[in-house]
Amino acid sequence: LSQDDPLTNLNTAFDVAEKYLDIPKMLDAEDIVGTARPDEKAIMTYVSSFYHAFSGAQKAETAANRICKVLAVNQENEQLMEDYEKLASDLLEWIRRTIPWLENRAPENTMQAMQQKLEDFRDYRRLHKPPKVQEKCQLEINFNTLQTKLRLSNRPAFMPSEGKMVSDINNAWGGLEQAEKGYEEWLLNEIRRLERLDHLAEKFRQKASIHESWTDGKEAMLQQKDYETATLSEIKALLKKHEAFESDLAAHQDRVEQIAAIAQELNELDYYDSPSVNARCQKICDQWDNLGALTQKRREALERTEKLLETIDQLYLEYAKRAAPFNNWMEGAMEDLQDTFIVHTIEEIQGLTTAHEQFKATLPDADKERQAILGIHNEVSKIVQTYHVNMAGTNPYTTITPQEINGKWEHVRQLVPRRDQALMEEHARQQQNERLRKQFGAQANVIGPWIQTKMEDQLNHLRQYEKSIVNYKPKIDQLEGDHQQIQEALIFDNKHTNYTMEHIRVGWEQLLTTIARTINEVENQILTRDAKGISQEQMNEFRASFNHFDRDHSGTLGPEEFKACLISLGYDIGNDAQGEAEFARIMSIVDPNRLGVVTFQAFIDFMSRETADTDTADQVMASFKILAGDKNYITVDELRRELPPDQAEYCIARMAPYNGRDAVPGALDYMSFSTALYGESDL
């Protein structure tokens, strides 16, 4: 309505009254507004119509208000009942759906999944449950309010549908609380279990990886056949290496047991990936058992190979110990059987023949030794073939092969009959020579004494001759006096003679020298023969050999002539270094002044020394040691007590002082003195 627009206001009032109050339109609004004084009766009639309309409406409104009030209470109660039923149904439905979720104890496989469950549970506690707690509380409030209103409005108490009582809801809520508590405990236990499982699983993986890394290649290593071509020293090294591996293997036993124990614990804790853990653990255990079996098998193979190689090594060593002397014996035998022998008597060839027969008598035993040596080698071959040993090399103790032994043995067998033939031929030759010797001896035994007698007669004659020459000396002296007078008279020539005094003197001196030399040579020959034990036959042989090699008849021998002479007399002087050294030693004896010639006297002295039983420096030294009471020195008192005075003083004057550790004051060195006596050192 608008205060400024009465026309519209009246039209609106008339229209509403007609439409809603059943008051017919009695006036026009224009008549009222446009008239200064409208029709009072008409207005009063119209107003009374409104009065009557409103008077009946007030009663109806009061009645309606009462009904509405009752109905409103009833409707409100019904709404509360419906709300309770709906709220109770929703809450019970939520509890019904939530309890199975809380009672679900299906474990998750991973910590992440369980932590998600825990997060979901926390969301339930933080987000989902609080509104439901509020709903439950509101439900109880609504129930109590409804019951109070029903009681105040004289209505009967509200009885919810079956199972939707507050007590039913409380019971359901108690079940929810119980399920919630158990679920929380289960979650915490499950998380702890998964933490333990994760730790164990990681520990299992780490230990398994370490073990698998350690075992990588071990089976291939244990299956190697390197011992088949190894030497004994290499086998021993392999055994030590294998012992170290066994110690390492034993040390890893704990790890394998730990791996198995962890796998067992994972199974007991119901680890989700137990099948793969069990498979890996089983593989490790199977591999471990296989490693143990392979380790034992390799040890047995190494020990068996070591034993075989030790046996072979012992056989090799025995073969070498027996093959070396047998090989040397065969080489010596071949050398002896091929040696060119020089013999001069039947006894010498008989000695060689006897020695050869003795040698042949040893051949059966030698052949047995050869068979035994070859048997040792065959034993090695048998072991190699039987046990399939791959030998890495040959016998380390010798280079002598069975083929060499057989070859040399066959050569020895071939040389024996040749030696027999050579000895037989030489024996026949020596028999012929012996006949010649006897023929010569029969005549020489007559001529020798005759020569000896003549030599003594010659010596006597030479001495008489020397005496007559000496007795002729006054005439020489007289001639010297006449020569003195001729010189004083300054006479330089003499047609009565071709001899000068110088000629006479030289001739006289040569005569004296010649007769003295001849007497000395005859005396030395007799002295050598008598004093050094050289028989006349030996002297004749020495003289014949000397004269034979004295090609130029100079009365001396050169080095090569002297060597040939010695060889003809049976000396073994080879052309090697040893032979040259021996010949140089002999030359130093027969030619001490290094003139390059050997006189007959020096030759006789050397041969006498070589053939006679003479004293040596060692023998003299041993004699002095006896006098000294087995000491390395001798004293002046001991020399004077044991030796004649002149010889004792001779030794004292020439012996050097003894400077050994055991020396005493006045000790003398008889060792250097003894060697000096024989020209082996200087006095």
Automatic annotation (TrEMBL):
InterPro entries xref list: CH_dom (IPR001715), CH_dom_sf (IPR036872), EF-hand-dom_pair (IPR011992), EF-hand_Ca_insen (IPR014837), EF_Hand_1_Ca_BS (IPR018247), EF_hand_dom (IPR002048), Spectrin/alpha-actinin (IPR018159), Spectrin_repeat (IPR002017)
SUPFAM superfamilies: Calponin-homology domain, CH-domain (SSF47576), EF-hand (SSF47473), Spectrin repeat (SSF46966)
Residue ranges occupied by any EF-hand domain in the UniProt entry: 537-572, 578-613
Domain Calponin-homology (CH): 1-55
Pfam families: CH, EF-hand_6, EFhand_Ca_insen, Spectrin
Keyword Membrane found: no
Transmembrane regions listed in the UniProt entry: none
This protein's name: ACTN1 protein
Organism: Anhinga rufa (African darter)
